[in-house]
Amino acid sequence: xxxxxxxxxxxxxxxxxxxxxxxxxxxxxxxxxxxxxxxxxxxxxxxxxxxxxxxxxxxxxxxxxxxxxxxxxxxxxxxxxxxxxxxxxxxxxxxxxxxxxxxxxxxxxxxxxxxxxxxxxxxxxxxxxxxxxxxxxxxxxxxxxxxxxxxxxxxxxxxxxxxxxxxxxxxxxxxxxxxxxxxxxxxxxxxxxxxxxxxxxxxxxxxxxxxxxxxxxxxxx
Length: 221
Hints:
alpha/beta; Rossmann fold; 8 helices; 11 strands; 42% helix; elongated
């Protein structure tokens, strides 16, 4: 999962990025409204953490431009503005949730998990397909309730496919959402990760749709 952090306070941005990274997310940071708008308009993100008090273009203006352009990624607003009219304005502009500063990082992580789940149509933090399940709170992968040891990249891959259970995900989309900006992005490397997951979880868990991509939780062809 790939998250855009829009925050002009370096310490806050670094803290959020570190916490999200430790929770299995890939992050990108923007420090002003213009940069945030451009990244959100041209790159794929599973969620945006958006501060309102930004230099240049403020957060609400950025959000309104995204929504006007049809950008539908979930947006969690962060702000020191605490009055209810400002909260209403943010929600009406297209925000999906609102967290006032100062905040606990644990609450931010819980809200991020919930927003990403809801965007994919899931209510429970435990995602499952057949005997395989992923607990997104504990970052655990299980088969019939028994823990399976996986690498961070393997976890991100199975979690992404389970969030989009039943939908064929192209290699390009997987690469875009699994790897950081500085990581080597290669379809052969992606196939190697999927091969390792099949050895750990079962040969039929992640299915290949030749010429289209990969799917979990769909009927075998």
